[in-house]
Amino acid sequence: MSAPLTSRFPYAKGSDGSRRLGYGADYNPEQWSREVWADDVRLMREAGVNVVSLAIFSWARIQPTAGTWDFGWLDEVMDLLHAGGIGVDLATATASPPPWLTAAHPEILPVTASGQTLWPGARQHWRPTSPVFREHALTLVRKIASRYADHPALVAWHVNNELGCHNVYDYSDDAARAFRSWLRRRYTTLDALNNAWGTAFWSQHYSDWEQLLPPRLAASHPNPTQQLDFKRFSSNALKDHLLAEREILRELTPHTPITTNFMVMPGTKGMDYTNWADEVDFVANDHYVTPGPQDRDELSFSANLTSGIAGHRPWFLMEHSTSAVNWQPVNPPKKPGELARDALLHVAHGADAVCFFQWRQSAAGAEKYHSAMVPHAGADSELFRSVTELGRTLDALAPIAGSEREGARVAILFDWDSWWASEQDSHPTSRLDYHREALDWYSALHRLGHRADVVPAHHSDLSAYDVVIAPVLHVVPPPLAKELTRYVEGGGHLVTTYFSAIVDENDHVWLGGYPGALRDILGIRIEEFGPLLDGDTVDLDNGTTGSLWTDRITVTGTDVEVLAGYRTGTYASRPAVTRRGTCRGSATYVSTRLGVDGLSVLLPQLLAPAGVVSELPHDAHGSVEHAVRRDAEHRYLFLINRSDEQVALPGLTGDVLVGPRPEGDGLVLAPRQAAVLRQSRQSAP
Q: Which of the residues are catalytic?
């Protein structure tokens, strides 16, 4: 395991040696002539930039041919940045192999489930399990690390880049061999594997390890446990590559912290970052907003989950956008104020560095219409002025560097196994969206003015929370079932939903009635699922409407209360939401998808037994997000207006680090404005 994250975070330093928040971007000087580089450093200083990620896609420039190396340009850039007081998060440059390597060794190229080769021409065209790629990549890492180990600009190592963004699933022969080795380590014997995979079904019994393959394109649905294990293996294969690069960096530069940029956001579910976090010296994340009705809820959710993965210690926002991206069907720019607001939402949830892709907007290439800190219009632009203003804002927030997020009283559990398994084929419905269900609960809590933590299901101390919400916790191994039961019996209030606790770690159904692993603590039994067709809904007797799913619930415990019943649909007059109370705790089951509106109606009933109340005035609910960071002496209250309207926040006190001065007995936030108050730990509520 790595050293504690707080001791290995590459803090920026002020002129007096004090900690500062990091601020910067991916820097790609190889896209520009040498004459531009000095101007880049000048503008970086003007904007308050103090750290950049360098050489991420530079392999072809560093190693133009198999036998030649060119570090002269990189030496010059490193020296320029150091002279400008800018630290370097130096990449290992292994993200995309150069043309000479793929031409000489096409066997490193990934293969799809249908047997198609993914050819060069974009990026990440390499197999995570290719020994040939690994050999060349590690040679490059050793060359770079040896050359820059003692360079004064080096503040951190950036392994590869967005591991698995485009190559998480490879079905090649290399992958097949590595998958078999992984399965041998996991199961030891073929009998154990056959039992776990349920190979008695469809005559799939394996008699030799060499018969095992990735779940390639098949005549029908591949074995579900094989699919789940391949997802686990694929995440682990990428982690193995991370470790291979890391070990060389540790050998040559033992005192330089190492990270790689995660992608905690909805579209990148292939990597289980809860199993990666302990392998880096600090967690880093990339995040891009997808426009929609829950866009800022999702930004907050992902930043919150990143904090949970990091153990609520400081983390590094490695990439986000100053304005428009280039990869959505329509790419609108950000509104005035959104650049700073989005950045501060990440800081509120624990980011101690705020960086963008990229520094200077590209003139050519696939991402030339992706925004940057210096746009095509140049420094004389509203965007660059906003970038510079954000630099001043982050400088004013220097006192929070090193502080941790203060935990909430409510937690939402997030589980990669459940995300993977619940959305596989051959299920009661193919419409289930695991991430969306978890986000709906988060949005509803925000609408009611509540803070909540988003935490990994298997790596969190549940006793720290009064209420734990586990949406679609589909995969529940025996240890987790026991932990959740102990949580309730110890006085905690558990809330779970449809299609939860259905299977164990091998994707085998818990028999005896659903939701098998939690049936007793919930005091209910379900014999049959009732998924709904597209467009169908059911009304509940509390005035809410359900969609996607219903359950035929039978109450088995005498201490179970029906909080809401079905008023329409096949299960009319039967329970829809139940709660079983224990001597101190409770276990609640929600059997349909209520959406944000319905959950906003239900949640007050679920939070009341725990005494959870909002810390915000009622008029700010749904408009203002609040988060708290703290150190030994102070509590830092973040108040972020996510609406397009002015919001008053009476009764708040503290030193204003960022934002408007108090008016009367409180603050007034302008549209899309943020404030940060410093409060004494002794006097804070």
A: 162, 319
